[in-house]
Amino acid sequence: MLKGKKIVIGVTGSIAAYKAAILVRLLIKQGAEVQVVMTPSSKEFITPLTLSTLSGRPVLCDFFNSGSGEWHSHVELGLWADAMIVAPATAATIGKMANGIADNLLVTTYLSMKAPVFIAPAMDLDMFAHPSTQSNLQVLRGYGNHIIEPAAGELASHLCGKGRMEEPENIVQVLHDFFLAGNSLAGKHILITAGPTYEKIDPVRFIGNYSSGKMGFALAGECARRGADVTLVAGPVSLATPHPAIKRIDVESAEDMYKASVDAFPSCDAAILCAAVADYRPATCAEKKIKRTGEGMTIELEANKDIAAALGKEKREGQHLVGFALETNDGELNAREKLAKKNLDFIVLNSLADEGAGFAHDTNKVSIISQEGITEYPLKSKLEVARDIVSYLSRLLLIAVMLLLPSSLMAMGEELNAQVTLNRDKVQSADSEVFEQLKDGITQFLNERKWTASTYEEEERINCTFNFVVESYSPDGSFTCSLMVQATRPVYGSTYNTTTFKYEDKAITFSYQPYDRLDFNEDNLDNNLTAVLAFYAYMIIGFDMDSMGDLGGSEWLNKALNIANNAQTLGDAGWRAASSENNRYAIINDYMNGALEPVRKLMYKYHRFGLDMMYKNVSGGRKAIFDSMKMLKQAYDDRSLAYFPKLFLEYKNDELLNIYSQGSIKERMEVQKIVTTIDASLSTSWEKIADNHDDNQL
After folding, report:
1. Of 251, 247, 223, 226, which Cα lies nearest the Cα of 237?
2. Domain count, the chain
3. Are 308 and 166 contained in the same domain?
4. Are 176 and 1 in contact (CB under 8 A)?
5. Could you give the 3-state DSSP secondary structure of residue 633?
6. Out of 177, 510, 638, 659, which could bridge 529 as a Cys pair, Cβ 3.0 to 4.6 Å?
7. 171 is in which domain, residue-wise?
8. Which residues are catalytic?
């Protein structure tokens, strides 16, 4: 998941700076590109030479090189990176980041960063606990940064407490999980309730509870980070909204929260009811402050409306409802009773008997209970707990999408429904016309050309994206671009689309001027851009046809191979037979190689007899997918240096994880062994799947 990711690591003046060397090494080992930026004081703890040697790049410490005058552009770093990690982050740097004090290259890079930022504090326990540090961290959270909480233990001062920078292995895992999650909730609308409710006795007194709202706000932030539209109904709390995309509705009483939740739920895909809602309220509220009389006082209570029960009753097919249960005794029994009674999909149980869990803490210890069983988690920060809960919900939402039957759609589909994007942020040019014309020309070339003699119906329709990032551009019309190509096809009997091809082309060079015609002759190639576009068009169609019939894409895949052979003289390294193990030529040549025929056959078995049958509820679908994994392993054993088996797993990994998250332990372990043998970089996510099981599963 970190392969090819561009990571900026910021190192500050802390004794924990030595851990930055381990962090760099681990990220490089996972295939990431790393650029280290150091503060001046950090060089007292670790040398730039060490980090430069490990990263393979010159370390940046100053705004410019005093010897050569070379400028180190923090703006370019902000555009280049997929993520920034500040580890270790001292109290001083945290304060500067929170308040925009841009007096060194690290802070200016942070202020220019377009990518997500992760901050791993490291300092003495009193410094970390100081209100100013905590306030600055809260500000940074409010800006959308990710705080990787420090661990507790012996510190440099020989005192024991919270302030140790998190271990590099765990930081890499946080980053891995972040990219794995991606935009898994994009297009989803999630309702979340959080905090307590206050039930008025008179104008100055109320019945309430100790809920701080931290758990609900952490859930809202995590859902928003994964791309969801979040409506947060918050009781009276003193917390900042954790993400700018969240729609926040502040309420006070249980009745207010009930009305807001009932109004919002019909348009939602899911609701997480995390608020500690008062079960009862005073039957009457005094208009004036009740005076002390010296005698006893009785307050008559009446029941509030049950939000979870009301939403459970209204829940429609495809919606999901998550509840919380805070118990002091008989936790699992009470939670299961609530799960069934209120029509919940799963319930999150936490107990006041567990140290560090429940109200007012920054940590929580939960169990997730559903009809399938119980999953227990150790004590974690509430941010980490939120990730666990949202990941569990994400899997349910994906499965629900797969199982929903579509309406009868018989409209005729095009061959390629290509969406083209052209990102020019990395180049400075006042001439916007050339980029607009290029995008329009590519879109027209892909969508208006007749690539096959076939007619695609709506249920067979290909969808694909061509995402170009302009790396360099010259007014003479010379372009260098990277290109991400992805194609999907519908799974029959569902609204789910499965990826059939995904590949990142690192560098494409071509010439283009406004209003140039994109002419193409596959037997006489003279334009590298049209050759690349036609190559991927045929690849997409070929893979799609292979997924619908045994070796069904041969005609178009042979066309792609023909282009790759004819393009050897175009001067672009992406075509050269011996220049790379994973360039355009190598991929199509491998795929059409007889030794990899099991891969071509698995495309049909995996999609037609696997996914298509599974989501029509036809038996044998899961077995077909498992058989496909064995075919992939056979291809890998036949030709272990071929790139395509790894490429297949790279774009199918999330789908396979979702499929096997509900499988038996035997299935999970067997598929884990296959996947991690072919691509060891996927081992972490599959180890989680294998370990997360119920021993009673068959």
Report:
1. 251
2. 2
3. no
4. yes
5. helix
6. 510
7. 6-181
8. 209
Distance of alpha carbon 120 from alpha carbon 86, whole angstroms: 6
Q: Hey, what are 497's tokens?
A: 């689309």
Q: Using alpha carbons, list the distances in angstroms from residue 178 to 29, 114, 384.
A: 18, 16, 11
pLDDT at site 404: 45
Q: Are residues 235 and 140 in the same domain?
A: no
Q: Could you tell me if 214 and 173 lie in one domain?
A: no
Collect all residues with Cβ–Cβ distance below 8 Å to 290 and sequence separation of at least 6. Answer: 201, 202, 205, 297
Does the predicted model carry a pTM greater than 0.70?
no
The dihedral built from the CA positions of residue 380, 384, 386 and 387, taken in this order, carries a sign that is negative
User: Could you tell me if 42 and 82 lie in one domain?
Assistant: yes
Residues 141/133, Cβ–Cβ less than 8 Å: no
Token pair, residue 619, equals 């038996």
**CATH number, residue 327:** 3.40.50.10300
Q: How many Å apart are CA 567 and CA 569, to the nearest integer? A: 5
Residue 391 to residues 43, 51, 161, 455: CA-CA distances in angstroms?
Answer: 39, 34, 30, 39
Tokens coding 393: 């919900």
For residue 524, how many other CB atoms are within 10 A of its CB?
A: 7
CA angle 311, 312, 314 (to 5 degrees): 60
- The token pair at 145 is 């940064």
Give the tens place of pLDDT for each residue, 595-604: 778 888 899 8
Q: Which two tokens stand for residue 680?
A: 């060891």
pLDDT in tens, 53-95: 999 999 999 877 656 556 666 778 888 888 999 999 999 999 9
For 508-528, the pLDDT digits (tens) are: 999 998 777 788 877 778 889
Can you list the alpha helix ranges (DSSP code H) found in 100-244? 105-112, 125-129, 131-142, 168-181, 214-225
* Site of tokens 């999901």: 320
Residues 154 and 217 in one domain: no
**Of 351, 370, 403, the domain-final residue:** 403
Inside any domain, residue 36: yes
Task: Identify whether 596 is part of a domain.
Answer: no
Strands 270-273 and 189-194: parallel
Side-chain-facing half-sphere of 266: CA atoms under 13 Å = 3
CB 300 within 8 A of CB 282: yes
96 and 221 assigned to the same domain: no
Residue 649 CA to residue 629 CA, distance in Å, equals 10
Q: For position 31, which CATH number holds? A: 3.40.50.1950
Let me know if residue 520 belongs to a domain.
no
Choose among 594, 591, 567: nearest CA to 579.
567
DSSP annotation of 316 reads P
Claim to verify: residue 218 and residue 334 sit in the same structural domain: yes
Contact 40, 61 (CB under 8 A): yes
Amino acid in position 509 = T
DSSP, collapsed to helix, strand or coil, labels residue 66 as coil
Q: Which amino acid is at 22?
A: I
Label residues 347-368 b or e (16+ Cβ within 10 Å = b): bbbbbeeeeebbbebebbbbbb
Instruction: State which H helix or E strand residue 367 sits in.
Output: strand 366-370
CB contact set of 104 (below 8 Å; sequence gap of 6+) = 39, 40, 96
Domain final residue pick, 159, 181, 203: 181
Pairing mode, if any, of strands 366-370 and 346-351? antiparallel
329-363 pLDDT, tens digit per residue, is 888 888 999 999 999 999 999 877 777 776 767 78
**88 preceded by a cis bond (ω within 30 of 0):** yes
d(C-alpha 183, C-alpha 167), whole Å? 26
Do residues 212 and 103 share a domain?
Answer: no
End-to-end CA distance of the chain: 30
